[in-house]
Amino acid sequence: MSSIIKVDTIQDQNGNNIINENANTVTIGKAGDSINVASGSLKDASGNIIVSKSGTTVTLGASGDTVSVASGATFIGGGIIWQSVQTTGFTAVAGNGYPCNTTSAGFTVTLPATPSAGDQIQLVDYAGTFDTNALIIDPNGENIEGGADNLALAGEREGVTLTYIDATQGWIATSGINEGTDALSPAPYSVDFLVVAGGGAGGGYTGGGGGGAGGFRTSTQTVPIGTVITVTVGDGGSGGSNATGGNGSNSSISGSGLTTITSAGGGGGGRAQGPSAENGVSGGSGGGAGGETSSQSLTGGTGNTPSTAPSQGNNGGDNTTTPNFGGGGGGGASAVGATGTGAQSGAGGNGTASSITGSSVTYAGGGGAGQTASGATAGAGGTGGGGAGATSGTGTAGTVNTGGGGGGGGGYIPASTGGAGGKGVVILSMPDASYSGTTTGSPTVATGVSGKTVLTFTGTGSYTT
What we know:
Elements: E1 9-11, E2 17-22, E3 25-28, E4 40-43, E5 49-54, E6 57-60, E7 81-82, E8 90-91, E9 96-100, E10 108-110, E11 120-125, E12 135-138, E13 151-153, E14 159-166, E15 170-177, E16 185-186, E17 189-196, E18 216-223, E19 228-232, E20 251-254, E21 261-263, E22 352-354, E23 361-363, E24 425-431, E25 438-440, E26 444-449, E27 452-457, E28 461-464
Parallel strand pairs: 7-9, 8-10, 9-11, 10-12
Antiparallel strand pairs: 1-2, 2-3, 4-5, 5-6, 11-14, 12-13, 13-16, 14-15, 17-18, 17-24, 19-20, 19-28, 20-21, 22-23, 24-27, 25-28, 26-27
C-alpha cells in the first residue's frame, strides 16, 4: 500500500528550502542554487526514467512520454534557445530564437510545417535593417494571425515572439518590440508592369515616313506596402501636314522604393517631297524616312532612344535610292521599319506581344510609309497597332492604347497629312490576395486573371500597395 506525505516545504538539515510550494507555484531550490542531476537517471518506482543526464544534456521523461505542466501552472526556466545570426532564408525550429541580418537583402523565414499548440519562435532585427529590407514570414501551410498570407517584420530593431495557438488562428504574435500597433505587417509583394509610350505620327506632304512605335518596356518589382505608384500614360504624336510627324509622349511608373520605368514616345515619320524631305525622328522606336525624293538618301530615326536594356524599340526604315517615291516604315518594338523603294513604301516594324492581361495582346507596332507614285504601294502598319500609309490623303492613325505609330500621308494634291500616333498604356498585375483596392485615375480593374488582379491605365492615375 502506497503512502502520500503532504508538505508545503522540504528543507535540508541547514534549514534551506529544497522544494517549496506557495499557492500554485512550486519552486525547486532557491535563488543562486544549481539544480543538478548526476550522470545517470532518476526513475520512478516502476523503473521508468523520470529525469536523465548524459554529459551536459538533461532530459525529462523517456522517448514516447508526454511531459506535462499541470493546468494553470507555469514552467519557469529553459525557454528559447538562441541560434547564430541568419543572413539567408531558413526554416525555423520551434523553441529557437533567431537574430536576422537583412543588411544585404531581405529574406524569408519559413515556420515549422507541423506545429503544436504552445510552440514558439522568436525573431529579432540583428542590424536595424528590417525597415529597409523586410524579413518575410511564411506560415508554411498554416495560418498566421488567422490568414494564410505571408507577413513581414518591417520596423527598425523590430522583434517578435510567435506562438502557435490552433489551426484557426495559427501563429500569433504574443509579444514584440518596436512594433507599433502590431508586430506583424503585411508582406511586400511582386507587381508586374507593362509600360508603353505614345506612338509617333506619320510624316506628311506626298509620301511621308511612318511613325515609330512608342517605347515598350516591362518590369517585375517587389513593392513595399503603402507605396504610391504614380502612373503616366503618354499621348500619340500629331500627324504632320506638309511636315514631319510629331513624337509621341512618354509613359512611366514611379514611386518611393520603386525603380522608375520610363518608355520614350515614338519618333515622328519624316516629311516627304524633294530636297525638303526629312529624316525620321529618333524615339522609343524611330520614325521612317520621308519619301518622294529625287536627289538625296534619307535615314530613319534611331530607336531605343534613350537607350534601355532590354531595348525598348527599333530603328525606322531608310529611303536610300533615288528617285524614290516610297518613304521608310516606322520602327516597332520587335522589328525595324522596312526601307522604302521606288514602287513600295516601307512597312512598319512589328510590335511585341504581352500576356499581362491574361491573353496575348501585341503592342507598339510601327506605322507604314505613304506613297505618291501612280500604281505604287503604301506601307502596311506593323502588328501591334501600327497605322497603314496612304496612297492618297491622310495616313491611318495608330491604334489607341497600343502605342502604335501613325501611317505616312500620300498623294500629290492636296498635300497629305500623316496619321496620328496611338496613345500608350500602362498595365499592372499583382496577386488577387495582395490587391489593396486603392487607385486614382479610374483604371480598368480585372480580378481572378489566373490568380492576379490586373489594372489597365489609359490615363494618368495611381495605385497604392
